[in-house]
Write a structure and sequence with these properties.
This protein has about 60 residues and is mainly α. Helices cover about 40% and strands about 0% of the residues.
Length: about 60
């Protein structure tokens, strides 16, 4: 007898891992990374409000 099962088989689901335990050093690194991302996000929003720097864009030489 042949089965009519076609296509890819779905992979078995992996069990969810438990919460990780962080020591003080790991917590400091995570907090520092979050602070840096927040600062970058603020800088990006400020830069988008001001527009482009210089405003000249690509310069053409004029030679042909």
């Amino acid at each position: 007898m042949s089965s009519k099962q076609g296509g890819k088989l779905k992979p078995l689901k992996q069990p969810k891992s438990g919460k990780k335990e962080y020591d003080e050093h790991d917590k400091e690194l995570i907090q520092k990374k979050k602070d840096e991302e927040k600062a970058l996000k603020e800088l990006r929003s400020k830069a988008s409000q001001k527009g482009s720097f210089g405003g000249a864009g690509l310069k053409k030489s004029g030679k042909k």
